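Data availability (excerpt). The following record was deposited with the supplementary files.
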Amino acid sequence: MKHLLSKDFFINLNKLGSSKFYFIGILGSGMSALAGFLRLKGARAEGSDRNYSTFQKNETALYLESIGCVIHNQNESHITPVADYAVVSTAIEPDNPDVKKSIEYNIPIIHRADLLAYLVNNNAGVAIAGTSGKSTTAGITGFLLKKCGLPVNIITGAAIKNIEENKEPLNCIAGDSGIFVVETDESDGSIVKFKPAVSALTNISKDHKTIEELLPLFQEFINNTKEKVFINKDDKLSMRLNFKNINAVFIGSNDKCDYAISDLKESKDGTEFKLNGKSFEINIPGIYNVYNSAFAIAVAEHFGIQYDKIREALKKFEGVADRFDFVRKQNPLIAFDYAHNPAKINSLLQFVIKFYGKTLFIYQPHGFQPTFFLKNELSAVFENYFIGGNKIILKPIFYAGGSADKKISSEEIVKELKSKEINAEFAPDDSFIIDYISHNKNLFDAIIIAGARDKNLKSLCEKINSLF
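Predicted structure:
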């Protein structure tokens, strides 16, 4: 696909209302946010998606259509010559019918990341990066700036809860300023396209790429930042970067940090903490969210927002979609989480087991190559937690179609875990899980369902909840 992409393009940001965009794969998390944002700015946003059905529309499709986007399925081409730009993501194949028609009609094909970077680089961009926590950090940052009165633009991969009063979570907000809050993606290398005014790097861990591949990408990203870079000083891999000639601002638990985190009082509902001696409170769980919040606070202060406003707004933040979303709050707790890499799963399990007790963790690996790549790291996390009363059930690896090399399976992983006396089971289908829980209702204090990409995981949560 790379040879088809248009690198040189010009979009008049002051006349977006006259532009026509066609998104191929419009319901993806990043694509839907861009399409929604451009539509809110007055542009024509149309697109297609293989997951779109006029008979059973998901929340993303319903929202996009409610603001005027037109969506088609992908069983044939729907793009017409009137489109100014065709937008694709890395997941789109060159033989997609809309891609073929775009070439036939000589419509410029733009990668999603190039379009997003264009918006960021030509405005006061705030780009959030890192292998874990970037969606939540971008969400808190955008939330604070908006709730504190800045007419900010926000484009994120995860929808932000209560960003608008009495509305469903939103992954795009169109404001009247030049401030753009976005999250970047290191998995496809597109992070290097961004040249923001301000950036934040939450952490670095092996995910999609090796550490040796990730470090140069993040180095180039911080080198590209024009004004200020916020860095997690407690993250050892982040501290391997070269900060010479970079205006780096450090956040961490050391009292010598520019933003020093201290006096943590963690509960299962949230955490009280101090940042440079000033008291804050978040109502989302986990110490990792203290760090995410610290980044957002630092960015808010960069834009001149005062402490009292930040503190009050932060207390109202309810999180982003699919991050520790409660399905049931009574015992046993039932929650869904997007956690899918070893670092995220480790942070999640650490919190849940600490505050809720005996845990059943139902996990769906999110692709054959990522699972194969992270097998050792995932196994190390599982071996650390699933001994004694805690248990993991692995669902089959999520398969989105295409020519994936099925060189690993959940069944193989479970077999290896069992050989090490880890409390693990393989679930060939959801009925296995339902049957197991129905016969062991009183065995666990928490049931967590985790994974990425498969929309059916949420329906599994509801089926489990109906057992109680």
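Summary of structural features: Residues 2-112 form a domain with the Rossmann fold fold (CATH 3.40.50.720).
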